[in-house]
Every structure is written in C-alpha cells, then in structure tokens.
Amino acid sequence: MRRQRNVKIVATLGPASDTYEMIRALHEAGVDVFRLNMSHGSQENIGDKHRIIRQVEKDLDSPIAILADLQGPKLRVGTFANSSAELAIGAAFRLDLDPSDGDETRVCLPHSEIFAALEPGSNLLVNDGKIRLTVETCGEGFANCVVAIGGTISDRKGVNVPDVLLPLTALSEKDLADLEFACQLGVDWIALSFVQKPEDVNEAKALINGRAAIMSKIEKPAAVERFDDILAVSDGIMVARGDLGVELPVSAVPPIQKRLVRKCRAAAKPVIVATQMLESMIENPMPTRAEVSDVATAIYEGTDGVMLSAESAAGDYPIQAVQTMNSVAIEVESDPTYAQIIAGSRNVKGSSIADGIVASAREIAETTEIKAICCFTQSGTTALLTARERPGVPIIALTPLRGTARRLSMSWGCNCVMTNELGRFKMAVIDAARAAREGGFATESDLIVVTAGVPFNVPGTTNILRVAPCDERLIFSTDPG
Fold first, then answer.
1. What pLDDT is attached to residue 302?
2. CB within 8 A of 160, min separation 6: which ones?
3. Which of 87, 408, 413, 474 could disulfide-link to 6, CB 3.0 to 4.6 Å?
4. Which of 76, 174, 197, 402 is catalytic?
5. Can you tell me the distance from the alpha carbon of 129 to that of 168, in angstroms, rounded to the nearest whole number?
6. 388 has catalytic annotation
7. For residue 415, pLDDT beyond 60
8. Does residue 76 carry a catalytic annotation?
C-alpha cells in the first residue's frame, strides 16, 4: 500500500481500536506500525490484536510492522489511610519499607533498591513530577525528605528518580513473561522500557535471540548520558518524551530530541518520536495548532516515525488522528524547506562499499530523471542505508523475507515489496521494474536505480548499482547478465 509520504505512522491499539474493522481502517488511513502496549490488557487480548493485524496484512497484501512495548519496572508508593494526603512545601516527609498505610508524614516505598542508590540531595518525583521530594538523609530502607513541590499525594502513584542510576534491570518478572510471549507470537519489534545503560539492551537481546528487532526507549537521564553506547547495541530508538519531560527540565527535551534523531539517522537506525503528539484529539476531532507544529517539527528533523498513544488506543477519534498525522506529513514533505533541511543534515561519512553504493544511488536519482531506488535486501541493511540518505525519490525495498519487509515498515521511505529469492541480477532488475510499475512509482518509459548484492541472499554484500529501464523488453535486450 503506497503512501504519499516517507515518515511512518505508529499507532497504539486499545479499547477504541481492537476490532478488525477499526484496525483495517487505521491501516488504510495511514498506519504503518501497530503498537501493542504490554502495560494494558491480558496476553490473550494482546494475542487477539496480533491475530487481527496479521489478517488485515493478508487481506490487503501489505506488510505491517508490529511493535510490542514492554511495561518495564513500575516504581510506586504504597497506600494512604485516607487514600491520599496533602503535602505542604517545606514539610518533612519520610519514605520507608513499612507496609502500613501512610499519612501526611510518611508512606511506604516498597523498593529497597531505590534506597540503596539514594544520596542526600537526590530528588524523587511523584505522580509525573507533580510532587517533588528532596532527600535530606537516607539509609537502608528509608529516606527522610523535605517537600520541594507540594500537593495531593494518593495511593500507588508512580515515582521517578532522575538523579541516580538505579540498580534495577530493565526487565521485571512481568516483562520477562511478556517478552517471551511476544516473541512466540511473532512480533517484529520489541520496545524496551527503563533503559539506563547498554547492558540493559544486551540482556533483552540475548533473550530475544534474533526473533525480533529491539527498540530502546530513551526516557531516563541516564539513557541520554549513555546514548551513543545504547544506540550501538539497539536496532532502533524511541524518544519517549513523556518520562523524559518528568525527569528532566521540559526545556531540555526539544534539543535532546533533535540530537537523538540526528544520531539515529547517522547510524542508519530507525527512530520514533513519541508521547502527546496529538493529545487533544483523545477528546476532540481537531488538534491544536501547537500539536500540529510538534508533529511537523519531528518530521522536519528527519525522524523515521511519529507515534500516537492514547489518541488511537482510547480516544474518541482514532481515525481522524491518523488522518491528521498523514496530512501534516504530506504537507511538510512537499515543502521545499523540508528538502533543504534534510539535505543540509546529511553528514554521514561512510567507509564501506555499501555506503558508497547507496550514496551514489541517491545522487544519481536526484540529478537525473530516475523515478525510484529499488534495493534488494536480505537482512534490511541495504534499505536502512538507503533510507539514511533520505533520497528525493521513493525507496522500494524488495526482499524474499516477510520478517525483513515487516521490520522495514518502521523505516523512513521504505515501500516494502515481497519478491522471490533470486539467483541472477537480470531477474532482480526485472522484478524491480515490475514492482515500480505495479506500485505506481514509474511507467515503462521511466528509469529506476537498482542496487543489490552478489551473490544473492547473503546479508551485507551490497556491491552493484544499475540504472535500468522499467520496460522489461529493454532489460532483456540490453542486459547480458
């Protein structure tokens, strides 16, 4: 299913979008990747959504990526005698391991690991930062704090600890079970929450064992500090701005987003910008102008995808939210300024043959009358390198592996087409020409660029570039191979 844009749309499924009819309508409206939020719903419910997506994929003959988003460790306070308490600025407040109900002087924090990492001066943020506590003294199983920002604190509100590296694994017991379940289902991507260091990613990768690609969610200051190392071991990145905006000053989030997007592009790894992109459309059929500008900014930055969360999972207008993102993307990408920004941020200095091939393909396509770049790919690397170039013509990624086609649905500009395994380059050119014509990218009188690796079906061997006609008769008459 050809899109009129290059950036991809990720939509979260939930109660508002869990039927065949709605999921199909969302895909037809523009969704390229469906997110299954493992924080909500049973495994049976998640399995039902997965089955429906695959049925839509089959019925429409259109590769769809599925992203399973793990919950990660949830740090929460205990309960209060009256369900809540009022904390005044400057008041003393104690966190400890005592499971009894709390009041305005103390509450249980049932996470001994947090106390082991705290130091005087550390901050604890409760309920998305609405309450801020500063540690004065701490020890084994307790922290005596002063209330820096007061308000109402209530049962089981979440706790963020932005100032310290917590001695917690990114995979809770629930995550371990959900990870194995998602891999057995056959999802294409696993989103890993609570990443603080590259070792967190490596732990998950060992368990996944190649059954899915791994997307690291950057939502903690520690992950920002170790980003280069985390990126090196990840297949993709999600800029999870919600928790970032809680644990860091909100003014710091936009420049972090811009830096992370550029680094991901340079590494040829897909990056998704997420959280509150069209938040008002949960309840309203139209977004705010600020939200439209937010989506547009991410697209101008060169992100691979933009994501809907509650807008599509629980909102009243899921299809309209997708249509809005689609329209914004088309408008932005048709702006001459967009092409200038994308070209101006192209600063990759590749050193491999594949780097040279894809850079040459992009330059040839943009300086001649080429209609599309067709890249044959086994593992997806060739298509990812081509997407990194952000060419001004469509990318057609041809692969015999459905898993590769699905994973590439996450990547900028990749129009994924299934093809047979090939043994001769001539047949590759013929398949590419046919895909370009059938997809509406070119006509018989047009030219395309074809990249491939010989021998075929061996990952990482991109070594051929050919400018070819879309007329198969001309291919047969001019290509001896």
1. 96
2. 75, 124, 125, 126, 128, 129, 243, 246, 247
3. 413
4. 76
5. 21
6. no
7. yes
8. yes
What letter represents residue 320's amino acid? Answer: Q
Catalytic residue among 275, 381, 451, 462: 275
Mean pLDDT, residues 438-456 taken together:
91
The letter for the amino acid at 235 is D
Q: Within 10 Å of residue 81's Cβ, how many Cβ atoms?
A: 12
Span 310-330, pLDDT tens digits: 999 999 999 999 999 999 999
Whole-number pLDDT of residue 453: 83
For each of the domains in the chain, give its residue range(s) and CATH number, in order of start: 8-72+170-335 (3.20.20.60), 84-160 (2.40.33.10), 353-478 (3.40.1380.20)
Partner residues linked to 144 by β-bridges: 94, 137
- The three-state DSSP-derived secondary structure of the chain is CCCCCCCEEEEECCCCCCCHHHHHHHHHHCCCEEEEECCCCCHHHHHHHHHHHHHHHHHHCCCCEEEEECCCCCCECCCECCCEEEECCCCEEEEECCCCCECCCEEECCCHHHHHHCCCCCEEEECCCCEEEEEEEEECCEEEEEEEECEEEECCCEEECCCCCCCCCCCCHHHHHHHHHHHHHCCCEEEECCCCCHHHHHHHHHHHCCCCEEEEEECCHHHHHCHHHHHHHCCEEEEEHHHHHHHCCHHHHHHHHHHHHHHHHHCCCCEEEECCCCHHHHCCCCCCHHHHHHHHHHHHCCCCEEEECHHHHCCCCHHHHHHHHHHHHHHHHCCHHHHHHHHHCCCCCCCCHHHHHHHHHHHHHHHCCEEEEEEECCCCHHHHHHHHCCCCCCEEEEECCHHHHHHHCCCCCEEEEECCCCCCHHHHHHHHHHHHHHCCCCCCCCEEEEEEECCCCCCCCEEEEEEEECCHHHHHHHCCC
pLDDT digits (tens, 9 = 90+) for 74-125: 999 999 999 999 999 999 999 999 999 999 999 999 999 899 999 999 999 9
Count of other CB atoms within 10 angstroms of residue 458 = 10
Residue 190 structure tokens: 């696993």
pTM: 0.93
Size (the chain), residues: 481
Which residue is catalytic, options 24, 217, 241, 265? 217
Q: How many Å apart are CA 193 and CA 169, to the nearest integer?
A: 10
The answer to whether residue 443 is catalytic is no
Q: For residue 364, which phi and psi values (nearest 5 degrees)?
A: -60, -45
Active-site residue, from 5, 8, 24, 35 = 35
Q: Which amino acid is at 178?
A: D
Q: Evaluate if residue 476 carries a pLDDT over 90.
A: no
For residue 481, pLDDT beyond 60: no
Active site residue 426: no
